[in-house]
Amino acid sequence: MLTNDQLDRWDRDNFFHPSTHLGQHARGESPSRIVTGGSGVYIEDRDGTKLLDAFAGLYCVNVGYGRSEIADAIAEQAKQLAYYHAYVGHGTEASITLAKMVLDRAPENMSKVYFGLGGSDANETNVKMVWYYNNILGRPEKKKIISRWRGYHGSGIMTGSLTGLAGFHNKFDLPRAPILHTEAPYYFRRADLDMSEADFVAHCVAELEAMIEREGADTIAAFIGEPVLGTGGLVPPPAGYWQAIQRVLKKHDILLIVDEVVTAFGRLGAMFGSDKHGLEADIITIAKGLTSAYAPLSGSIFSKRMWEVLERGTDENGPIGHGWTYSAHPIGTAAGVANLKLIDSLGLVENAGKTGAYFNAAMADALSGHAHVGDVRGEGMMCAVEFVKDKASRAFFETSDKVGPKLATALLGQGVIARAMPQGDIIGFAPPLCLTEAEADIVVDGFKAAVGEVFG
Ligand code: PMP
Fold this sequence. Notes:
Layout: H1 4-14, H2 22-26, E1 35-39, E2 42-45, E3 50-53, H3 56-59, H4 68-81, H5 93-105, E4 110-116, H6 119-136, E5 144-148, H7 157-162, E6 179-182, H8 197-215, E7 220-225, H9 241-251, E8 255-259, H10 273-276, E9 283-286, H11 288-291, E10 298-303, H12 304-317, H13 330-345, H14 348-367, E11 373-378, E12 383-387, H15 403-413, E13 416-417, E14 419-420, E15 426-429, H16 437-455
Parallel strand pairs: 3-13, 5-6, 5-7, 7-8, 8-9
Antiparallel strand pairs: 1-2, 2-3, 4-10, 9-10, 11-12, 12-15, 14-15
Helix pairs in contact: 4-13, 5-13, 6-12, 8-9, 14-16, 15-16
This protein binds 4'-deoxy-4'-aminopyridoxal-5'-phosphate.
4'-deoxy-4'-aminopyridoxal-5'-phosphate binds next to helix 6.
């Protein structure tokens, strides 16, 4: 077995970590953690430290750690058939079963699911299919995609462009055409507009309409959004937002891509956020909760109206020119089948609604009175606490104050993992959907102590 010193050196000498300060890590100036195990809502590291993971990895380990039902399904699939491709009509029992299970749970108007590996490649698939769709319909100019500032849709070239966060664009020459960004439905951040919430929704809609007018509706193919903003700050939309946005999209024949990478399969206390928020998607992106991250797998679910055009396209042009070697990987789809069965048998969608409401209420109770807490918000098993320098004027801290990272570090000292979100002093919580009320109390008590430590 490798010693801790060896692992530490090999890590810093060889491993390019995602979303990491590369120089600090390579020089050994920033903390690292070697994770060795997990059970329920806890992970354990090599030093024997046990931490309550209140962000479920990257809001993906929805059933919790250490579920032998999924591990066994993966092992059985690997022994029987570790791999075969899905090109030219090939399938496995796992991939065919999972496609049916996804469609059985998806909103009524959905028709087929394409399987990829992660959320980024799924959104890449979506953009290609939107372009293909408009080419088959004979409108080659209708190609631009509207996203929102603070939306998160991946970190590839196209999907990093869809993402509306500066940290994912800077020095990467992103965003690239033909991606446009419009106002995020983030009322709390826009105190500068001095509007009621209803007026703010009207403002978001007016911004969108002005963009469509400026660019020309015949150049805009699709709009992409998460039902509840995730990485951009965990922000539920203001009342009426999605209804009003969808009216505009329908009027201009603009497709709607609902990115449910975080929200699908229960996180909001409903199987899909689309159903809960009244979203009529043309495409739904799924990933994380599809396998609870026991194996990499994503999906793009296409509506009947899109599917008909895609079918027509291949009748006219031959097989669809799109696919990954690992599309519908048997091990991923076997994990997905076992995971969705577990979500049902454990009642995790209901628990996310019920315990999520308890968790959000307890967090608000504990923290909303604090002088530097500007907002406590959430939905289902998602909760965010946003910090301000001054509550009355809603003045925000400087990035250099590092309030978010300091809070996350103090919380780690309490044995709880949460995430300092990338833009703003926002601490995000998105625990496994199996969280109990007692575990929610541990998170809230730990965070209250951490806030006390940072602000004195
Ligand atoms: N869409 C959303 C809404 C996400 O939150 C994420 C990842 N956090 C992605 C897409 C990208 O998924 P991946 O990291 O698996 O590529």
